[in-house]
């Protein structure tokens, strides 16, 4: 069966719709975000389904019934994998978020290698694989997303279920020296080789993966060039590729051109008295480098006192994993830092840091992107970072500047026209801010228009197509890589 006729089955930890209790009644709310908007039309057009957890472990809730109604509206099927509170604790908060998340972001000291987490991770992966086996047929293409579900292909095979499978990792893949710290390193890497295609965000992630393969499974032979290569495991071959994820460029650009959004952006600028706006937008997570960023703002104001009263730093931090102590502590740390910087530098009529701890509706976020003169995107490590791309898409006047961490996957594509920084180097970041503050209109336009061209071309639809093509194409010889993907 050919690529464009296979039914697509997407499997992820969470469904693209969440159950929420509103006015005492459970409702289904559609998820937003690039992945959902890119995959929904594909699922609708070629027929398909999405399998994932509904987001609630309440046994009283008829998740399947609620989702069935939602499915008919969405135009594709949604199936839930019911999980108990213990399963969510061990597999999601435990193994996924206390082991894989920090380890794969090179933050091994934050890992808690609890063997019970591993066992629960396997149990839940098995549960997912049972649902996938039941709901799909051998003609389907099964696309599994992210680090929560790395054992799907292995378990499907162990059940004797033959499926064509692709896996995409949204977060970085660590270099061998870090991966080797994982107590279950061999089992995990072996499970990944059971997919037909394994996709990463960057060539560097792909190289890290093949580096780990060389160490742990020396029989693996890598061949080919380009974005997608083949790995011969002796008894079977898999493909391994780099597919930098992106955004729906036109959707963001169109939003930024809407009258209400432009008015709102003007309102934001006016409220800040038309001072230059430096913007940070992140889920509140320790990988995003928010404390370091605030310290670099402090360094900026100390080193370059001429900028006092000239700039405002606006940080939007979206609440995330609030039930976890570490995230609550991070929130406190950020709030104290904001207080300290404002305490040190404010004067009547000027407060340097504006901090928002909440989620904004999409058009409000677009207004902030549009209003900002500089986006300061400085994660300590990031798979891709979509905020960097969204900022450029919304910068329809092409007068903004992007300062980007060299440790974000996005840097591999955007390095030529973003100002790259090391987020740990507070003086380097301050210098970058000072430099771009003095960029003239022409310099800003030149960089921004190139950034926008590139993101426009390699948008989320390109990403979906290239992954699916690599999953099914017979010959990888001339598989097209993303423009300018250099590492
Ligand atoms: C993982 C990887 C990879 C943020 N604030 C608001 C809001 N957002 C949206 C942004 C953006 C998304 O959240 C964040 O995406 P990122 O890519 O920056 O980061 P992660 O959440 O960590 O995502 C990452 C990604 O997966 C995709 O593969 O790029 O590296 O870690 O879309 O717009 N959205 C709204 N209001 C807000 O206040 N509506």
Could you explain the architecture of this structure?
The chain has 487 residues and is α/β, with parallel strands linked by helices. The protein has 2 domains: 8-242, Rossmann fold (3-Layer(aba) Sandwich); 249-457, Glycogen Phosphorylase B (Rossmann fold), CATH 3.40.50. The protein is built from 18 helices and 17 strands. The structure holds GDP-alpha-D-glucose. Pfam families: Glyco_transf_20. This is Trehalose-6-phosphate synthase.
By secondary-structure content and strand pairing, the structural class works out as alpha/beta
What is the alpha-carbon Rg in Å?
Answer: 23 Å
Calculate the mean pLDDT score and round it.
93
Q: Strand order, biggest sheet?
A: 5-4-1-6-7-8-11-10-9
What separation lies between the terminal Cα atoms? 34 Å
The unreliable regions are: none
CATH topology of the largest domain: Rossmann fold
The CATH superfamily name of the largest domain is Glycogen Phosphorylase B
Q: Strand percentage, roughly?
A: 15-25%
User: At CATH's second level, what is the architecture of the largest domain?
Assistant: 3-Layer(aba) Sandwich
Provide a count of the helices: 18
Mind describing the biggest β-sheet?
A: 9 strands, mixed
Given the C-alpha coordinates, what overall shape results? globular
**What proportion of the residues is helical, as a percent range?**
40-55%
Ions, cofactors and other ligands present here are: GDP-alpha-D-glucose
Q: Count the domains.
A: 2
The counted number of beta strands is 17
